[in-house]
Amino acid sequence: MAVKAYDLTGRTAFVTGAASGIGRASALLLAEAGATVHCADRDARRLHETAALIKAAGGEAHVHELDVADKEQIDRAVAQAAAAATTGAGTTTGTGRLDIMAAIAGIMHSSPVLETREEDLDRVLDINFKGVLYACQAAARAMIEAGTGGSIITMASGAVDTGGPGLLCYGASKAAVVQLTKTLATEVGPHGIRVNAVAPGWIRTPMTERHDTQAQAHTEGVMTRMSPLGRVGEPDDIAHAVLHLASGASSFTTGQILRPNGGVAMPW
Question: DSSP 3-state assignment of 224?
């Protein structure tokens, strides 16, 4: 019974940021659990690599090259994914459906508050907040129209639980995602739609890589010492949190912030 709760056979999932890092790991794991995964990102080469990995493992994947900051592109891709929903046998269901939205795409920016430019803030908010908002809106509309419920998963950050030098733009955008998650959960709950966020700690991904290898080693060393587990995270650590929230195992969970952060932050 416990294993069946994580079975996503026959479900349709849409994953933004699927070209690398947490997005790719989540897309792969959702496909492994049986979902048909629609992979979205603006990095075409890596996006197709993700889809190829899913197919090589026996899963079903579709590719959507898009910019999450463009609402029309998101609306069109999500509508296409819902309309193309298939049964396990590969035949069209007729009404179409979207069961899972994992809005993971995001960027990092670092600058002191006094040196932060308007264009820096706008760029981060466009992708990290508006991009998530657009994905949530499109997914919720598709789920409500299908009448089959669903799970929407947003990607916040450990940055929402503590201040950090240089992280104004990033932290503010992720705090906005948390508020979006909680508000949307209250609005779509009556439709059987759950909305939750994942707030990772330091994860070793292309986004967190430093061009200076010494700086990279120093940062990871600091984060390792801060964690009671004595390590930094890997994309798969977060992908398993996404799978949990996407599956029936979390059927009574909504409006919550799941914090796989190695114990670096332990808020009430």
Answer: helix
**Domain at 4-258: CATH code:** 3.40.50.720
Q: Is 217 or 8 the better-scoring residue by pLDDT?
A: 8
Nearest to 28 by CA among 43, 1, 47: 47
Q: For residue 78, is pLDDT > 50?
A: yes
**What is the DSSP secondary-structure string of 74-116?**
HHHHHHHHHHT-B-TTS-B-SS----EEEE-------B-GGG-
Q: Which of 6, 14, 129, 170 is catalytic?
A: 170
User: Which tops the pLDDT comparison, 199 or 266?
Assistant: 199
**Amino acid found at 209:** E
Confidence of residue 1 (pLDDT cuts 50, 70, 90): very low
How far is residue 179's CA from residue 175's CA, in Å, rounded to a whole number? 7
- Would the pLDDT of 87 be above 70? no
Active site residue 170: yes
Cβ–Cβ contacts within 10 Å for residue 78, how many? 26
CA pair distance 160, 163, nearest whole angstrom: 8
d(CA 45, CA 224): 32
The residue among 16, 9, 26, 6 whose CA lies nearest residue 136 is 16
Domain assignments of the chain as residue spans, ordered by start = 4-258
**Nearest-angstrom CA–CA distance, 52 and 110:** 33
What global pTM score does this model have? 0.92
Is the pLDDT reported for residue 249 higher than 80? yes
